[in-house]
Amino acid sequence: MHFDVQKRTILLVKHGSHAYGTNVEGSDEDFKGVCIKPKECYFGFTQKFEQFEHMGSKSDGVDKVIYSLDKFAALAADANPNIIEVLHVADKDVLSMDEFGEQLRAHRYDFLSKKAKFTFSGYSMAQLKRIRTHRKWLLDPLKCPPMRKEFGLSEMSAVNKSELGAYDAMLSQDSIEMELPKDIITLFTREKAYQAAKTHYDQYVNWTKTRNPARAELEAKFGVDTKHAMHLVRLMRMCKEILTVGKVIVKRPDREELLAIRRGAWSYDQIVEHAEQLDAQCTALYETSLLPREPDRAKLDTIIVEMTDRYLRLHG
After folding, report:
1. What is the pLDDT of residue 173?
2. What does the chain look like in DSSP terms, one character per residue?
3. pLDDT, the chain, mean
4. Which of these, 50, 62, 190, 282, could form a disulfide with 56 (CB 3.0-4.6 Å)?
5. C-alpha angle with apex 66: 62 to 72, nearest 5 degrees?
């Protein structure tokens, strides 16, 4: 990076808990923004830029990410939850904005589409999967790595990863003209099962070693990561709001309830039931929502090109 990102930032907003209104004492500060990179990054080949990141240390607790306008627009058009929110934060959470940032915000609804069903809901279901996995590990910790003999395999692997990949690719074909010998199919099936078990165990070990101490304390106390649970509920509710009223409500009107979930007010079963109900509702709303299935990418592209061209004429 060979330019002053801050100087070329057209929009900077609060992000994360401070934007949602769910921040508590000690919550890190998160900021996201958009800049327009200089012409050298567009026409040359020695300078490339997509985003600037400052990941907060213990000393400052500040996370800041500034995206190039073109990358930001592409992510927003794909309804990336962490990106689309930037355009919809409360006015008081906009920290800086020039005429170009104002123009970008003015087109925020042009980025919205039914794709939010798959991104917001998808993110939240991924959270739910982590919650379920971690709860299973808490209640029934894995004691030792899987052994090859448990899967009817010898200690010396007869199948390598590339061969497993080729086997999977072959199985994914619509039709297979040749039939494999039964013993070969058995070998590959057992090897795949062993590798899956080994990956699962490795994930468990990594989780035990890298768990955030505060998160570990929550899980030990409530049997669930309540912060994950809070974000799961928030994402699902935002998904429903987008599909019903066509708005991204960043500053949460349900702040108190979300904070109660974070404090452990909801049981694991309540969290799962609520998430599954919302997911089913969003699936139904996808069919009736007035939002387009996709944003008008040609229109958005014209807007971004015009903004970039005008900015470069003024600032180079």
Report:
1. 62
2. --S-TTTTEEEEEEETHHHHT---TTPPEEEEEEE---HHHHH-SS---SEEEE---TTT-EEEEEEEHHHHHHHHHTT-HHHHGGGGS-GGGEEEE-HHHHHHHHTGGGG--TTHHHHHHHHHHHHHHHHHHHHHHHHS---S---GGGGT--SS-S--HHHHHHHHHHHTSS--SS---HHHHHHHHHHHHHHHHHHHHHHHHHHHHH--HHHHHHHHHHSS-HHHHHHHHHHHHHHHHHHHHS----S-TTHHHHHHHHTT-S-HHHHHHHHHHHHHHHHHHHHH-SS-SS--HHHHHHHHHHHHHHHHHHH-
3. 90
4. 62
5. 135
What pLDDT is stored for residue 292 in this prediction? 97
Q: What is the arrangement of strands in the sheet containing 62-68, beginning at the earlier edge strand?
A: 51-54, 62-68, 29-35, 9-15, 94-97
Residues 6+ apart with CB under 8 A from 303: 103, 107, 110
**Is the overall model pTM greater than 0.90, yes or no?**
no
Q: What is the pLDDT of residues 158-210, one digit of tens each?
A: 777 777 777 777 666 654 545 667 877 788 888 889 889 999 999 999 988 98
Inter-residue contact 29 to 62 (CB < 8 Å): yes
Contact in structure between 20 and 250 (CB atoms under 8 Å): yes
